[in-house]
Each structure stands twice: as C-alpha cells, then as structure tokens.
Amino acid sequence: MARPSNEYAVYRGNMFLCMGTAKECAERIGVHYRTIIRSSNKKYIKKANEDSIISVNLGRALDG
C-alpha cells in the first residue's frame, strides 16, 4: 500500500495557482516537483520576492 502524498497550495505572489500533490502542481505550472517541495521551506519563503513561487504544505492527501 502506497503512503499518501502531501498536498500543497501553490502561489505566485498573492495569486493562487493550484492545489494538489507536488507532482500534480509541478505538471500544472511547468516546474520540477522538487521546486514545489523546496518552495514550502521557511528559509526559502523568507528570501522570496513577489514573483517567487511559494507553496504551503497542507498535510497528507485524503483519498476518497
């Protein structure tokens, strides 16, 4: 049984881009899935500017 993935909400500045697993969000916005994971890091967020992609880790995804 596969373990559930974390869900992320992804933003660019104040604009909401998408929500889903790191892989789903990466495919939607055209970046590597590690970019989604890295952009939820507190140090990354602290250094980010208005044009940076920021993601918020929402926790484990619930399947049906």
Global mean pLDDT? 91
The end-to-end distance, rounded to whole angstroms, is 15 Å
Order of helices and strands: EEHHHE
User: Could you list the spans in which at least 5 consecutive residues all have pLDDT below 50?
Assistant: none
Structure classification:
alpha+beta
Helices, by number, come to 3
Strand residue percentage = 25-35%
Which bin fits the share of residues in helices? 25-40%
Categorize the overall geometry: globular
In total, the number of strands is 3
Number of domains: 1
Output the strand order for the largest sheet. 2-1-3
| Major beta sheet summary | 3 strands, antiparallel
Work out the radius of gyration: 12 Å
Describe this structure in words.
Strands 2-1-3 form a three-stranded antiparallel sheet. It is globular, with a radius of gyration of 12 Å. The chain has one domain. It has 64 residues and is α+β, with helices and mostly antiparallel strands. The mean pLDDT is 91. The longest helix is centred in the middle third of the chain and has 8 residues. It has three helices and three strands.
SSE blueprint:
Elements: E1 6-12, E2 15-21, H1 22-29, H2 33-38, H3 42-47, E3 53-60
In short, what is this structure?
With 64 residues, this protein is of the alpha+beta class. It contains three helices and three strands, in the order ββαααβ. The protein has a three-stranded antiparallel beta sheet.
